[in-house]
Design brief:
The protein is an alpha/beta fold and about 260 residues long. The chain has a single domain, classed as Zn peptidases (Aminopeptidase, 3-Layer(aba) Sandwich), CATH 3.40.630. Helices cover about 25% and strands about 20% of the residues. A nine-stranded mixed beta sheet has the order 1-4-5-7-6-8-11-9-10, sandwiched between helices. The longest helix is centred in the C-terminal third of the chain and has 15 residues. The two termini are about 35 Å apart. The structure holds zinc ion.
């Protein structure tokens, strides 16, 4: 299924004196199954909303487009709550979505990548699959906590994100998780990973997936595209006020952006 893009009415960017398409507050994405991200009308930062696909249970997976494409402006995708029991880092992304317009980055945020897992507060999707083991790079059958699914990209959530990332072709992807508290700096581009760790004030770490990562989203992206995908882990209970305020600002600063 192709994503449904909602084009928004043009409005005038504050102070710029130019007709630039920005959000006239956009309509909420139709979502009869009730994804948490569609309950709030997105704020002024949103220039477009797209449903990138649907979960096993038919819940919409919305992506919100913030910032503006332009020459020299990096394209960035932020993903959180791929594991439905890692519920806090989505507040970084919803804070960016719901706040003032973002400048200096062509930014997409997917706050709740696993809406079925989020609804039930479980790591897995509705078929018991760990989406971060279902991607078709070094995939291997596994069961239990790290259930890989019955085949590479067997899950609709995986295929939705693959389509979306192929189309957007971002320069950078940050995949937010909990609770390991650190940035994996054994990465495709270590200097970038170190910049992320420094700017977000997180320790540098190596995440080994208990003896070898298989079928993760960042592995697939890094093997397939010229861009860089990086896992960023916060702790078990980071303060929501921190995530919504200083952390959201630091994430923009990683890319030389602001509001
Ligand atoms: Zn996780």
């Amino acid at each position: 299924m192709r994503g449904v893009r909602v084009r928004l009415a043009a409005a005038t960017l504050l102070g710029a004196g130019l007709a630039v398409p920005v959000a006239a507050p956009p309509p909420a994405v139709a979502d009869p199954a009730g994804s948490a991200d569609t309950a709030v009308a997105p704020g002024r930062a949103v220039i477009g909303t797209e449903v990138i696909g649907r979960s096993v249970r038919g819940r919409a997976i919305p992506a919100f487009h913030l910032g503006q494409p332009g020459p020299g402006v990096p394209t960035v995708v932020l993903v959180s709550t791929m594991h439905g029991d890692e519920r806090r880092t989505r507040h970084i992304l919803t804070s960016l979505r719901d706040g003032a317009p973002v400048r200096g980055v062509d930014l997409w945020v997917v706050p709740t990548y696993n809406p079925d897992g989020f609804a039930r507060a479980t790591r897995h999707n509705a078929r018991g699959v760990d989406l971060n083991r279902n991607y078709p790079t070094r995939w291997r059958r596994a069961e239990g906590r790290y259930d890989s699914g019955r085949a590479p990209a067997s899950e609709p959530e995986t295929r939705a994100m693959m389509r979306f990332l192929r189309r957007v072709d971002p320069d950078y992807v940050l995949s937010f998780h909990q609770p390991l508290h650190g940035v994996d700096t054994l990465a495709k581009r270590p200097a970038f990973a170190q910049r992320v760790a420094r700017t977000l004030r997180l320790p540098r770490k190596t995440f080994s997936c208990n003896g070898g990562c298989r079928g993760t989203m960042t592995m697939w992206f890094n093997a397939t595209f010229r861009g860089v995908a990086l896992t960023v882990e916060y702790g078990a209970r980071p303060a929501l006020r921190e995530l919504r305020g200083p952390v959201a600002r630091r994430v923009l600063r990683v890319f030389g952006a602001g509001r």
